[in-house]
Write a structure and sequence with these properties.
Blueprint: H1 5-10, E1 20-25, E2 28-33, E3 36-45, E4 48-57, H2 62-77, H3 82-98, H4 101-112, H5 118-136, H6 146-158, H7 162-181, H8 189-192, H9 211-222, H10 228-240, H11 244-248, E5 255-256, E6 261-264, H12 273-278, E7 282-285, H13 288-301, H14 322-329, H15 341-353, H16 359-366, H17 375-378, H18 384-403
Antiparallel strand pairs: 1-2, 2-3, 3-4, 5-6, 6-7
Helix pairs in contact: 4-5, 4-7, 5-7, 6-7, 9-18, 10-13, 10-15, 15-16, 16-18
């Protein structure tokens, strides 16, 4: 006789040590013990008596238990052991949980973040969680299609943050490639949406590139009425054309006035974690004019750690807004000149106005990586002696612009 829902719900354990078994047919029965009610199915496989667990009541109802029994009987008819089939399904579920887009993304992040800066690692994971994991986190990575990925990127695109959409496409591609490499998927949908997003408008850091206007800027720096440390920071930004962060974070221990050399430790350069830990320092030859500015500021901040300490506390460097703020107060708007623009200014004018200086020498002064996949590995030339000459020529050239001298314009090479 078949069981009923009422019977299953109301029947109690009799107290028998081995429990009570109530048959439902087809080998299925309800096994009641002191701790609960269990669905079981008895069957024979290759002459051996075996038992299949179908679930626990009430989580698995009578109807669900019967469905599982029927599925098991189909397996038996096909010559498959229901217990082995159940194990395979369980293993597949576990594998599926490890193959979700989220799992692969987090695994990739864990592997790669050891060589990333903490800031980049946090930014990468933040964008992933905000957009891609929300859409695809629980999906098997191999089930995600190019149209689905594009649809999510289009939503980001509609917000007007085109660079974020392109960054997400790039990061998604990294995850899919990692999935291919680790055997969790066999295609990269991100590659298939290449060209489907709106292009990011090319923008450059505002920089003055016209010699006469540079002269105006230099004279404005000389006449700057703000704090002396800010004026010197502006002057050295023009003379040294290093990254704004390196300028404002300059430390006195990095400067050797006698040797006219600034040595920026690898840990303070814009590099990967490996590069910061194992790379060489960046050498910046100091012109006579740069030395004079450094000597000018030494009585004011020489007893501090930073050459340009924060005006609020000497324990921190100058704010990253100080140089840009000073440029605005001097009358140079945001779309004309920026703290980072001193690098573009020097790179352009040295190439156009100081003939005979090889591009590699300029790039070495800018601390730009060598071109090509093996550039940094095999080309370790630092051109220090050539850069000493270049930096003095550059400083002398700026003096001429400051004085308003006539400067011959050289045509750009095609």
């Amino acid at each position: 006789m078949s069981l009923t829902d009422t019977f299953v719900k109301q029947t109690k354990w009799s107290g028998r040590a081995t429990g009570d078994k109530h048959s439902d047919g087809g080998g299925m029965y309800l096994h009641i013990t002191s701790v609960g009610k269990y669905w079981r199915m008895a069957y024979r496989m290759q002459g051996k008596q075996k038992t299949l667990a179908l679930g626990v009541y009430p989580a698995v109802s009578l109807a669900k238990a019967r469905k599982k029994r029927d599925e098991a009987r189909i397996s038996l008819a096909e010559g498959k052991d229901p217990v082995e089939v159940k194990r395979e399904v369980k293993a597949a579920e576990i594998a599926l949980a490890a193959n979700t887009f989220e799992q692969v993304a987090l695994e990739y992040h864990k592997v790669k973040s050891e060589s990333w800066s903490p800031k980049y690692a946090s930014k990468w994971l933040g964008g992933m969680k905000t957009y891609l994991l929300t859409a695809f986190g629980k999906r098997p990575i191999n089930s995600i299609t190019a149209p689905e990925l594009l649809a999510v990127l289009r939503l980001v695109e509609k917000k007007g943050i085109l660079d974020t959409a392109h960054t997400l496409k790039q990061n998604a591609g990294q995850v899919f490639r990692f999935g291919i490499q680790t055997g969790r998927c066999d295609h990269n949908p991100a590659a298939d949406v290449t060209g489907a997003l709106k292009p990011v408008p090319t923008t450059h850091m505002a920089a003055i590139l016209e010699p006469k206007r540079v002269g105006v800027l230099l004279r404005a720096i000389d006449d700057y009425g703000g704090h002396p440390t800010t004026r010197v920071a502006l002057a050295l930004s023009a003379l040294l054309f290093q990254r704004p962060g390196n300028i404002r974070q300059l430390e006195w221990t990095w400067i050797d006035i006698e040797k006219a050399m600034l040595t920026i430790p690898a840990s303070s350069m814009k590099r990967s974690i490996y590069g910061k830990s194992n790379g060489r320092p960046h050498f910046v030859p100091l012109s006579a004019q740069a030395i004079e500015f450094i000597k000018e500021i030494q009585p004011l901040t020489g007893m501090r750690k930073f050459v340009f300490p924060s005006l609020r506390t000497g324990n921190r460097p100058m704010s990253d807004m100080t140089i840009n703020g000073a440029l605005r107060r001097m009358g140079f708007p945001q779309d004309e000149m920026s703290a980072h623009g001193f690098r573009a200014m020097a790179r352009t004018l040295i190439a156009e106005q100081l003939p005979g200086i090889p591009p590699d020498v300029i790039e070495a002064q800018l601390a730009h990586g060598k071109s090509g996949p093996l550039g940094m590995a095999y080309d370790r030339a630092e051109y220090v002696e050539q850069r000493k000459v270049m930096m003095q020529r550059w400083a002398d050239y700026l003096d001429k612009l400051r004085a308003g001298a006539t400067v011959l314009e050289f045509k750009k090479a095609s």
